[in-house]
Amino acid sequence: MNRKTLVLAATIGLLAPVLAGCGDTDGGSGGDAIVVGTTDRFTASEEEPAPVDPAYAYDVGTWNILRQTVQTLLIQPRGDGAPVPEAAESCGFTDSGNERYSCTLREGLKFSNGDPITAADVKYSIDRALAIKADSGVFALLSTIDTVETQGDREVIFHLESADATFPYKLSTPVAGIVPEGSYDKGKLRDGFDVDGSGPYTFETEVKDGVLTRATYIKNPSYKGSLKVGHDRIEMLSYESAEAMGEALESHEIDVMTRSMSPEQVRELDNNSDDTIDLIESPGLEIRYLAFNTEAPGVEAKAVRQAMAYIINRSELVAKVYGSQAEPLYSLVPATVTGHSNAFFNKYGDPDISKARQLLEEAAITTPVKMTLHYTTDHYGPATKAEFEQLSKQLNDSGLFDTDTKGAAWETFRPDGQEGKFDVYGMGWFPDYPDADAFIAPFLDEDNFLNSPYANAKVRKELIPESRRQADRLAAAGSLNKIQDIVAEDVPVLPLWQGKQYVAANDNVTGTAYLLNSSSTLQLWELGRGVSG
């Protein structure tokens, strides 16, 4: 735009917007609803009947629903950094070994139905997520918990199996959300889109054929926490395409456009002279990567995966598909996060087909290696298809691979990937919290998000626990770098790029600079109405 393009800066290891929203700071302005558009698709199906149960949900879209509606003891602050109290009045480790963590609840907490919240509700919610052990793998975020103890109505004590300096971050994620026992069974997930909690908003839905088409967030009069609610009513509409969402913004059907815009839309908005719409660019921690079923015959041989690492040209991929909206990534850990190393570049350097050929010959791999590159058509944005066509072309042009591409909707793509039906497939990741551990453990630890058969004992038993013992995250860099080197050697995943994130909004909407944090968490409470121009 020039459409007043607002660029939010980042510092190394701590991403923080430098432009604040300029509107009502008292919270709770009334008026008409602020309408937000998204291309996220929310589906309740036979395969995934409980998409927004905190004990199951584990993608950025459903987490964004829960962060508005279900309180956690801690929350990520406005500009990132260490978590701060939310439902809790205070929290902290009570021992020198980072194995005992205690929180005291705020006085007067209530669920949206008016029932009081006690320490017993916190314990119930955490124990429930661990007991259900949903196949989404989200429970693994709480895996270091041994027991949860309560003392009186307001104190909760977490006894950990091993030291975990990242535990406060994990308590700020939706899987640790506090839910009422009367609405959520101890041993069963809650089907559908109903949500009961104590967050800043209550939640009303319109559903058609199992698909959530409209969500309405209404200011929760019982809410008591650290957040100031900028507007009483937020509506969210889900669109089938970025183009349809863009047309809705132009026609004022929506006030705000969030993920995922196409690269073409971002470029057009950046260059357009219409000054009634603001484009906000901010640093993000979203990454994209290829995941491998390391037990599948086509990619079981490490040499095949390493050859792909030699061939794929990240710079060319980014330039042809995403332009300035992404950067090549050479590790699971993004470049702006403490503990990052360029492990893949250090091992493979610039693309080198001759080294890939030599590697395959030495391993007696018959070429061209045939495989299908699978991707999701409706979850990571409209450029995903072009990205996989480019990846396929790079591999095929080497003469060493014979690949094709195949897309599928997220509702089938996600479970098929977990069930090992793909040899290689494309995934994205929005971190659970802004720490290197959130880019390592979900892929490499037991009960990992991918349900990957790859297991490295040194990573799981030694290096991950070693890194978690370090409260000073700089001191964990040695262990984290070793993990990244092992990933580059074994290639259970192949990182591709790290993206920026964008919001477009009518210029009478305030708070857009803080609508997304670096983990792509929507903070709808920041939005308000102001004066256009």
TrEMBL record:
Q: Which PROSITE patterns match?
A: PROKAR_LIPOPROTEIN
Leader sequence segment: 1-20
Q: Where is the Solute-binding protein family domain?
A: 83-448
Its keywords, alphabetically, are: Signal, Transport
Q: Where in the cell is it found?
A: Cell envelope
Q: Which InterPro entries match?
A: Peptide/Ni-bd, SBP_5, SBP_5_dom
Keyword Transport among UniProt keywords:
yes
Transport as a keyword of this entry, yes or no, is yes
Family the UniProt entry places it in = Belongs to the bacterial solute-binding protein 5 family.
Protein name per Swiss-Prot or TrEMBL:
ABC transporter substrate-binding protein
Q: Which organism is it from?
A: Streptomyces incanus
The beginning of the lineage is:
Bacteria, Bacillati, Actinomycetota, Actinomycetes, Kitasatosporales
